[in-house]
Amino acid sequence: MRAVVRVVNRVLLGIVGLLLVAIGGSVLAVGLGAPAPSWWLHDGRHDVLLDEAERTRWRDEGWWWPVVIATLAVLVLLLLWWLIAVLRRRRLAEVFVDTGDGDDAVLRGRALETALAQEAGRPVGVEQAHVRLTGRRGIPRTRVHLLLEPHADPGTALDTLTTGALAHARESVGLTTLPAEVRLSAVKHRAERVS
Questions:
Q1: pTM of the predicted protein model
Q2: In 3D, which of 147, 136, 138, 133 has the Cα closest to residue 180?
Q3: CA 143 to CA 161: how far, in whole Å?
Q4: Cα dihedral sign for 25, 28, 33, 38?
Q5: Spatial CA neighbour of 133 closest among 156, 103, 166, 104
Q6: Which residue(s) pair with 92 in the sheet?
């Protein structure tokens, strides 16, 4: 979903930017006295953007206002979706911890990410571990990226992660489940010479 939002964001920003530059540049050029191109909507630099005939042209048609309102509503919904997708926090700032006495404590998300990454990076064969918490404060999810050394067994590394670091984090926070999305990749290394 994040990749889709990123692509939509870039495409929309590019289209809006190009339209604004083209329209704004054209208006500025005509306003400064450049001759208007043949496709230009207006006659010259003193012409108004919308004259009275253009503003009232479709007002008496029965289909006009429902189409305008529906188009504007769809545009507002799309822009709200875009704004929410861009502003939404990708990282979980804090996690609720059940203390057992009926109260909840709050654990900083970065602290849990750091602890998980340190424990996940300890086993032999794991070069580095990156952890990111997502989800909601009461129901966190993890995204783990393990960078494995060339000789490491991916199955063993995944098993060690699930039974070790993820299990310890789940137990220490007091969660029944801690869903994880794990991505494994290998360290780039030079080919070894065989003789």
A1: 0.54
A2: 133
A3: 12
A4: positive
A5: 166
A6: none
Q: Which two tokens stand for residue 73?
A: 């509503």
- Any idea which residue has 């769809």 for tokens? 74
Question: Bridge-partner residues for 134, per DSSP?
Answer: 141
List the structure tokens of 83: 């704004």
Instruction: Give CA torsion, residues 88, 92, 97, 102, to 10 deg.
Output: -10
CA dist 174 and 186 (Å) reads 32
- The C-alpha atoms of residue 51 and residue 36 are separated, in whole angstroms, by 18
**CB distance 126 to 159 below 8 Å:** no
Q: CA-to-CA distance for 49 and 41, rounded, in angstroms?
A: 8
pLDDT in tens, 86-141: 777 677 788 888 777 777 788 888 888 999 999 988 888 888 999 998 888 888 88
Q: Which two tokens stand for residue 97?
A: 């911890």
Helix or strand run (H / E) with residue 12: helix 2-31
